[in-house]
Amino acid sequence: MALALRSNERSLSPEQEALRDEALRGFASWPKTMSPKFFYDHRGSQLFELICQQPEYYPTRTEETILRLAAQDIAALAGRNASLVELGSGASRKIRLLLEALRPARYLGIDISREFLQASTRRLASDYRWLDVHALCADFSQPLKLPGDALGQRPLAFFPGSSIGNFDPDEARAFLRNLHQALPAGSGLLIGVDLVKDRQVLERAYNDHAGVTALFNLNLIERIRNELDSDIDPRSFQHRAFYNEAESRIEMHLISRQAQQVRIEDRVFDFAAGETLHTENSYKYTPSGFRDLAGSCGFASAAMWRDPAQLFSVHFLRRE
Questions:
Q1: Percent helix, percent strand, percent coil in the chain, to nearest 5
Q2: In angstroms, what CA-CA distances link 163 with 59, 157, 223, 272, 284?
């Protein structure tokens, strides 16, 4: 006999269960915190694509220019008939630059947002009829088991957008070591790394005039309200981003506008006026600092490219 749900109960998907578990843990911690991977539902992924178009947000256009200029060198390093594995499947021009330069045998897109992953890989399959397209919905911040039929013998993993900076140094090491374990020896890793630079340039990039980054940050609250049994109100929080020079990172927070109580399911959490929910870090590296980090995880530096203003870097690493 089927059991009817009471009106205030919800049947949660695995993704929503992960969101609930993270919110209950993070709201109970001190200071309050949540992982940035929960930004990326369908709306969050769309907002991030819009952030990348803002004039203050230099990483996307700078990385894209580096990739365009270095595309043939990257193709030579990757070799013929490589398989391209994109960590964080996106709709941007960056992956298309690589597809056209490398002409890989296969493409595997990996993303935590199932809906966005399906849409982006369908577009690629439609636009590149010659390409064998695969999709894997997974949290690549956790140990990965990559499907052998999508890897082939010469995979090149692509991790663009300075996303490595969203991990703290210990998490970045764990991520690289997990990736080292998942990839066969001799594989390549093409990774975008944001560089240490002037504070004003960094803070403008995360506080765009149009307020898109603020909407992106607040979308985390929207998700909790819409997907969970919660009375949280996005209007009671505001976006704040600043550069923490001592830690070499941009921090993003949601600031409680007033003293308030927030309910998630049957638990109630107190926020003081001005208390923050820490939602993201974005660490910045020097080139030598990142090479040292990658080397400690079994990746040797094969090449690096930077823009003339030295805002951003792209590294080609080889899995030893």
A1: 40, 25, 35
A2: 11, 13, 21, 31, 11
> Which positions ≥6 away from 87 have C-beta within 8 Å?
110, 140, 157, 158, 159, 163
Do the Cβ atoms of 109 and 138 come closer than 8 Å?
no
pLDDT digits (tens, 9 = 90+) for 154-176: 899 999 989 999 999 999 999 99
pLDDT band at 91 (very low <50, low <70, confident <90, very high): low
Pick from 1-5, 170-174, 178-182, 232-236: least confident: 1-5
Residue 304 CA to chain centroid, in angstroms? 21
For 94-159, the DSSP string reads: HHHHHHHHH--SEEEEEES-HHHHHHHHHHHHHH-TTSEEEEEE--TTS-----HHHH-SSEEEEE
How big is the chain, counted in residues? 320
pLDDT band at 312 (very low <50, low <70, confident <90, very high): very high
- What is the phi-psi region of residue 265: left when phi exceeds 0, alpha when psi lies from -120 to 50, beta otherwise? left
User: In this structure, what token pair is assigned to residue 172?
Assistant: 């970045």
